[in-house]
Amino acid sequence: MKNDWLWWKDGVIYQIYPRSFMDGNGDGVGDLMGIISRMDYLADLGIDAIWLSPINPSPDADFGYDVADYLGIDSKYGDLALFDQLVSAAHGRGIRIVLDLVLNHTSEEHPWFIESRSSLHNDRRGWYIWRDGRDGGKKPPNDWQSVFGGGAWEYDERTGQYYYHMFTRQQPDLNWRNPQVYAEMMNVFRYWADRGVDGFRLDVFNNYFKDAQFRDNPTKPGIRPFDRQVHRYDTNQPEMMRVVADIRSVLDEYPERYVVGETFLANTKITASYSGPGKLHAAFDFYSLIKTPWNPGRYLNAIQHQDKELPVEAWPIYVLNNHDNRRITTRIRAGEDDEKLKVSAALLLTLRGTPFLYYGEEIGMRDIHVSRSEIQDPVGKRYWPIPVGRDGCRSPMQWTDEPYSGFSTVEPWLKLHPGYPDRNVESQSKNPNSLLNFYKSLLRLRRENNALRRGIFIPLNHDPQRVLAYMRQDNDSRILIALNFARRRSKLALGGDITRYDWDVLLTNKDRSQPLFQKGWLKLEGYEACILRQK
Ligand code: GLC
User: Fold this and answer.
1) How far apart are CA 355 and CA 317, in angstroms?
2) pTM above threshold 0.90
3) Candidates 146, 164, 167: which one to mutate for ligand 1, based on the most atoms within 8 Å of Cβ?
4) Is the distance from CB of 361 to CB of 321 less than 8 angstroms?
5) Three state DSSP letters for 230-284
6) Is residue 2 helix, strand or coil?
7) Where are the beta strands (DSSP E) in 22-104?
8) Distance from C-alpha of 430 to C-alpha of 530, rounded to nearest angstrom
9) Does residue 507 line the site of ligand 1, with CB under 6 A?
10) What pLDDT digit, counting tens, does each position of 399-447 carry?
11) How far apart are CA 258 and CA 256, in angstroms?
12) Closest by alpha carbon to 67, among 76, 75, 77, 57?
């Protein structure tokens, strides 16, 4: 390995939804002890960092994304001493820790909000966004909507004013224009960085500021009231540029710290504008893979579009799954077939940019189906029967075929996928052709080949419906990645010198007794993902 290795650039980051990864104390909810107990699994898988969805104290109106204390650990997960143990268990294996910071809003049970709503004259009144209603107070201050349904303003009887919330009404937005709030937020970064945390994922960071004049949003056609607005005034305000610069300079006081933003309601261009030197290290562009349909031409367009928009010094990131979206297995209707998932895994892990994995992706976990009474997610409850809830991708990790899948000894907080007795870590570990072992091989290849991590990305001729082929190249080596997105055998005319070079097959999910190149054609089996290195 070269000695310019930088964990967030060369490594792979694994997202854990702590409620669902591993229950260490037998209460049906995952926790820090559970994660510590699976640290060897993560090291063996070959990931380089863990991003933990929020573990701060929370009444769980939005499962941790409503924080009641930024500096503590929720007792259902453990405590600060256990968190320190987790950090050292991870660091001892060369794994970094990334925390999720939800700084756009707090829980309504945060002591700051309790004080703020107590009277018009409370010292913390200005920490949140309070406004008088229109028309003598009867109507909300403006037309802004909550993305989770309904208006974004909640009337508070006690003081006769409205407070603003982009998410549920239990998640009041902080007022980042208040200098005390701003300073407090910067201290949150310092507090955790001092404790040894390596990086941060910023929840909906581009929402911190709202229009100073609270203007109505323009309207457009759409289904839900929220979609019928152009979000000109409630997101992506120019003031955000100062915040990203300030966060970066706080983190630059420490060695090798990282910050990645979750951009909310932003296209690739806006997302790209937040990352680069003096800004965030990276920002999620969900259009690059998550929102792209199963089509090689569309994937290539999305990848190239992101590369074009990002400043040259910025570093892309790629993600197929997270806790807010249906898993790729469901999106592409994979059925029980894992071969298609090997193609998407090979894509994710051979692109130029940091890959993010989501727990269970490596064993191809499928979404669960929840009945009305089983819904946990506030979004699912609000919109029922429209199936937009996010419980499907949050089911407990499938470790073994034992009762409760080895996740817990009691009934878990959310039901398990009924297929867990077959699809689990234990069974896939034993099967050399499993998806899990394919992920492990890809992770190993990425670690061993600088060209896969840092090399330039050279798209080759492609068949927009079926095959994607590209090269990753550095000064020492050339790696060719050929992905067949179709069930049938496919061939692609490559031409040029490529077919004349000699190649070693580094990895494929299919039988490769036949040569890959025949008379200038690249020939792939159905759903083949093949990685080759020039001899
Ligand atoms: C982000 C999180 C999501 C949460 C929301 C509000 O989009 O990823 O899970 O509900 O922010 O905090």
Assistant:
1) 6
2) yes
3) 167
4) yes
5) CCCCCCCCCCHHHHHHHHHHHHCCCCCCEEEECCCCCCHHHHHHCECCCCECEEC
6) coil
7) 49-52, 96-101
8) 22
9) no
10) 999 999 999 999 999 999 999 999 999 999 999 999 999 999 999 999 9
11) 7
12) 57
- The number of residues making up the chain comes to 535
Q: Quote the tokens at residue 44.
A: 């063996």
Kindly give the number of the ligand 1 atom that is closest to the alpha carbon of 166: 6
User: Of 196, 179, 329, 173, which Cα lies nearest the Cα of 255?
Assistant: 196
Catalytic residues: 203, 253
Q: Is the CB of 63 under 6 A from ligand 1?
A: no
Distance CA 432, CA 451 (A): 26
C-beta of 203 in contact with ligand 1 (< 6 A): yes
Closest C-alpha to ligand 1, atom 9:
324
Q: Give the Å distances, CA to CA, from 201 to 247, 273, 387, 417, 422.
A: 12, 17, 27, 28, 33
Residue 349: count of CB within 10 angstroms of its CB = 22
Residue 210 contacts residue 233 (beta carbons within 8 Å)? yes
Residue 286 Cα to ligand 1 midpoint, Å, equals: 14
Does 102 sit in the ligand 1 pocket, CB within 6 Å? yes
Sheet harboring 490-493: ordered strands across?
490-493, 521-524, 517-518
Q: Does ligand 1 have an atom closer than 6 angstroms to the CB of 154?
A: no
List of residues 6+ apart from 445 with CB closer than 8 A: 349, 452, 506, 507, 531
* Residue carrying structure tokens 């540029």: 241
Atom of ligand 1 nearest to the CA of 264: 7
* Best residue for ligand 1 mutational test, from 203, 319, 356 (most atoms within 8 Å of Cβ): 203
Rounded to the nearest angstrom, the distance between the alpha carbon of 363 and the centre of ligand 1 is 25
pLDDT digits (tens, 9 = 90+) for 8-55: 999 999 999 999 999 999 999 999 999 999 999 999 999 999 999 999
DSSP bridge partners of 491: 523
